[in-house]
Amino acid sequence: MKKKILRVIIPIAIVFIAYIILDYVNIPTLVGLTPANINGDMFSAIFNSVIVIVLYVVSFYFIDNKQNEKDANARDVTDVLLKKTYQECLDTLKLLDNKDMIEKYIIPKIDGKKSTLENDIIHNLQTLPFSSFDVVIDLAKNGYVKKDKLESYLDVKNEYRYLVNMKIILFDLVCPENDCQYAMYQDINARDKSLKNKLRDLLS
């Protein structure tokens, strides 16, 4: 940025200094020119216009540079928030692979008479990785999250919530006893494996 500004300012400064020297030494008279024939008002108007243009260019470069820094920072913040979310999702899914842990520490805290949303422990596990959801959406609205990244983020959110719910509710579905249970067992395992692989890809 500084180099761009100097390229504009230095030539103007040289011309200005040269003009002062010419006027002070009165070189036009020495070489036989008549200063009275020079339109001073026009020269002054042109010089003032040049100064305005220089100030505009300097301001433009300064504002543009600040905006570029702001955009870069916003994109960096977005990447940090997304990676943090994906890592927490992956860690929680791995944690829920431990069926003994679910039975001992989670199931006793679940009220079977309440819905998933009303059971705090399930709701918290589903939503904690997405605590920055509103921030990410605001960044997306301002153009700092590309469409494909936003789509992946929302897909992960929906699939993660589903798997947390199913892995807790059906934690004891280890040996399916009928076709329906087997289909559910296969579906949960397949989607769990697929989401974990997707999260690893997104983190890399």
Question: How would you summarize what this structure contains?
Answer:
The protein is an all-alpha fold and 204 residues long. The protein contains eight helices and no strands.
Blueprint of the fold:
Elements: H1 2-25, H2 27-30, H3 40-95, H4 99-106, H5 120-127, H6 133-141, H7 147-169, H8 179-203
Helix pairs in contact: 1-3, 3-7, 3-8, 5-7, 7-8
> Strand percentage, roughly?
under 5%
Question: Percent helix among the residues?
Answer: over 70%
Order of helices and strands: HHHHHHHH
Q: How far apart are the first and last residues' alpha carbons, in Å?
A: 33 Å
Give the total of beta strands. Answer: 0
Shape: rod-shaped
The parts where pLDDT drops under 50 for at least 5 residues are none
Average pLDDT, all residues: 81
- Specify Rg, calculated over alpha carbons: 34 Å
- Major sheet description: none
Number of helices: 8
Structural category is mainly alpha
Please give the oligomerization state of what you see: single chain
Question: What characteristics describe this protein?
Answer:
about 0% strand; 8 helices; about 200 residues; mainly alpha
Question: Can you put this structure into words, describing what you see?
Answer:
With 204 residues, the protein is an all-alpha fold. The chain has eight helices and no strands. It has helices at 2-25, 27-30, 40-95, 99-106, 120-127, 133-141, 147-169, 179-203. The chain is rod-shaped.
